[in-house]
Design goal:
The chain has 404 residues and is α+β, with helices and mostly antiparallel strands. The chain has 11 helices and 16 strands. The chain has 2 domains: 268 residues, 4-Layer Sandwich (L-amino peptidase D-ALA esterase/amidase); 119 residues, Roll (Ubiquitin-like (UB roll)).
């Protein structure tokens, strides 16, 4: 990772990209709710999508475009309305958004990705959206990139962005990411939207392969509440403006590019987990000593998804029994006589047996904003990390009145 540098910037930081956002009237309150990312030229694109069988129209429209040609030049995204479970009209509305962007920016409609997030089962106010899209060119400035990150937020409390620079073929390559997600977050494409731009030149198949692998190690390893949404999608655009030789899996610096992409996605994933609805803490669960990567991931995700573990962390209760219990029902081949558990640097379980520890010290550790749980299965050499948050009273308050 020493060759990678996190820098200041936003989704429009890579060369050849611009972005912006505005309020179009979708949301009941006057907050930005419509945004766009634009590349100066058609960009190589890749995507991964929710595993929920109820897939929203924008996702299906975007996927269809990428399946035909792995290129996009723009992504338009709205918040406040998911355009999910809206039937044929939802499909038509997503296509209309494509056409409106194409007309506004003089680009082919099939090179426009569409993303929506918000309330499920309501039709988009297309008159407002079309009017809003027509205004986007006027608010597209060199410094308007942060407005896109604001426009995609729903119950999020903070914007989630990151920029990384690296050198490939003696050329500076930039990768930038912007994401939204706070509730309905669960592994296997957590409920969220994430957008990544890069000025790297890259082969489409390698970009898709890298995105899928990095997703499994990042967004598929977070959970807030165990719900997987209808609109989850991660899109990557690479326009080649950095001037490097085309990246393929055989390129000598392919691994460096992957490390940078993975870093961007993991940081966005952690930002989503920390911003979980009502959350006060980021929880990291690291599993070591697993026989397979799949076992490590399952155990980590099971522990991070346990409501009892999450509430114990919220209450700063060093109740290691809840952790052991979650490991035990993870439906993985482990030896229940060999498990070790730590809360930070404090070992609480050794060989599946309690270890005496100082309760006030453990409580003080769990009161910190970042909490790490380490589990060693002593069954192999594989490991995995998952991220989540504590479960608080405010989560119930937020979701009890989400539509109203």
């Amino acid at each position: 990772m020493s060759d990678l540098k996190v820098v200041q910037g936003n989704i429009a930081k890579p060369k050849g990209f611009k972005a912006t956002g505005l309020y179009s009237g979708i949301k009941k309150v006057e907050k930005l709710d419509l945004g766009i990312i634009l590349s100066e030229v058609p960009a190589v694109a890749a995507g991964v999508y929710t595993t929920n069988l109820f897939q929203a129209a924008p996702l299906k429209v975007t996927k269809q475009c990428l399946d035909k040609e792995a290129k996009l030049q723009a992504i338009v995204a709205n918040s406040g309305n998911a355009n999910a479970c809206t039937g044929d009209r939802g499909w038509d509305d997503a296509c209309t958004m494509q056409s409106a962007v194409g007309e506004a920016f003089s680009i082919p409609a099939h090179l426009v990705g569409v993303a929506s997030t918000g309330v499920i089962g309501e039709y988009l106010p297309m008159d407002r959206i079309q009017e809003g899209i027509s205004k986007l060119p006027a608010v597209m400035k060199e410094d308007s990139g942060p407005l896109f990150s604001q426009a995609i937020l729903t119950t999020d409390l903070v914007e989630k962005t990151i920029c990384v620079e690296l050198t490939i073929d003696d050329q500076v390559v930039t990768i930038a990411g912007s994401a939204k997600g706070s509730g309905m977050i669960h592994p296997n494409m957590a409920t969220m939207l994430a957008f990544i731009t890069t000025d790297a030149s890259i082969e489409p198949s390698f970009l898709q392969q890298a995105l899928r692998k990095a997703t499994d190690e990042s967004f598929n390893m977070i959970t807030v509440d165990g719900d997987t949404s209808t609109n989850d999608m991660v899109l990557v655009l690479a326009n080649g403006y950095a001037g490097n030789k085309q990246l393929t899996e055989d390129h000598p610096q392919a691994g460096l590019f992957y490390d940078a992409l993975s870093l961007v996605m993991k940081e966005l994933a952690k930002k989503i987990a920390r911003d979980g609805e009502g959350a006060t803490k980021l929880i990291e669960v690291e599993v070591r000593g697993a026989e397979t990567v799949d076992t490590a991931r399952k155990v980590a995700k099971t522990v991070i998804g346990s409501s009892l573990v999450k509430t114990a962390v919220y209450g700063a209760d060093a109740n290691w029994g809840r952790i052991i219990c979650a490991v035990g029902y993870s439906e993985t081949p482990i030896d229940p006589e060999r498990v070790d558990v730590w809360l930070g640097d404090i070992q609480v379980v050794k060989a599946s047996f309690p270890v005496p520890f100082d309760e006030p010290t453990a409580k003080a550790y769990l009161e910190q904003e970042n909490v790490k749980i380490l589990i060693d299965l002593h069954g192999g050499a594989e490991q995995a990390i998952a991220w989540g948050c504590d479960l608080t009273y405010d989560y119930v308050k937020i979701n009890a009145s989400y539509r109203t």
